[in-house]
Amino acid sequence: MELDFTRLDRAFNPKCVVVVGDKQEGDFRWLRAQRAFKGKLYSVQVSPKSIEGIKKLGIENFTSLMDIPGDIDLVICAVPRTVSVQILEDCIRKKVGAAHFFTSGFSETGTAEGKKMEAVLREKSHQAGFPLIGPNCMGIFNPKIGIKQTVEQYTGTSGQIGFISQSGTHAIFFSLEAHLQGMDISKSVSFGNGIVLDSADYLEYLGHDPETKAIGMYLEGIKDGKRFLKVLREVSRRKPVVIWKGGRTEAGGRAIASHTGSLAVPQAVWDSAIRQCGAINVDDMDELIDTLKALIYLPPVKGARVAVAGGSGGQSVAIADDFGEAGLAIPLLTRQSYDELSTFFSLVGGSYRNPVDTGNPNSKEVKRIMEILARDANIDSLILMISTHFITMGFATDEDVNSQVSLMADIRDRFAKPVMAIVSYSTPRGMEQARSVTKKFQTKGIPAFPSTRRSAIALRKVLDYYRRRGGNA
Prior knowledge:
single chain, alpha/beta, Rossmann fold, elongated
């Protein structure tokens, strides 16, 4: 089916949303999730018991989709499988913009009945040119206008990252974890079985979306490989696309078949095809978030040589290993840098070879140290390490943290080199503080990561991306 951007845009930016089939037994999960929606919200339900609960929520209920006045942009369908075809037919007659079918029990069950009903939905949608999202999915998340996949998601803000996921769970977890790390979603979709609109359709849409600067994807399989790769190549020329592919093992492939009914693609073939299209492969949720974070905040990365400041002498071996295993280098500085450092750096319990120890008694010289590293001809990127352990122990204050954030922003502005931060923690309280410090850095446009390993992998992914593009992104 040829993609109608106008109708899909109505679904992602609706002015009127209708939830069909939400039940009291499910605590009205879909209606409650849309309570922050800024447009018109209606319900369709025929059960007297559920209707009473919907009225208590203050939402107007109808017993038929056809009775709702005016245009409807998005229908969220939570009816049993046996009623799904009837609801689709009503959506088509009502000229609804698009419908998200949360309803499951189709080809992913492997049963003849499920496959037959899915085929009917597909055929009717194609005949009418109707954009059906799903089935067996969590649909659309647009925090800016209050459309959510679950009650727990945030609203009232918008970011630069678009996310496309075959898995509803991954779509939700990605949005929540990215938000905690200071990165918000522009638009996201969980598309499940993808019987009408598939990954290529959403990728093409987000590729043209002006609010989306980078796109993340979780995929289990693709139905039209030729079209997907064509769209991926075109979109990757305009904005970065990072893809986490599920089903890399035989067991993972079996799980995919029962999850969304997709066929797994051999990993080696997949990796090669994605690289040729200019996109970035990642292996898990952490890599997905970290790589997108580096793409959003860093300028083009041009070299593999990294200077790290802030780690203790005892951490230097682990730091060097993490960056070395990622294919990056922690090189020696120039003679000029060492001569300058030697004029003030205290070697008591510390080292300035690289990594550079900025603990006591050198903590008051962080500005001079970072400026020396930024000028060094052997260094392409700069990283400052901060441990929340020193904050929880009272050895560092919020004022100290704010000063270091401002310092790194100043270094970033004055020197043409990528600047990053590592904010580590070792306790639950420290984790909360690390989230806060991370957001402070990223408010200033500096990506912050929870470990040296994660920062190293993200930096390597982004370096490879810019090298493939010739550094002209």
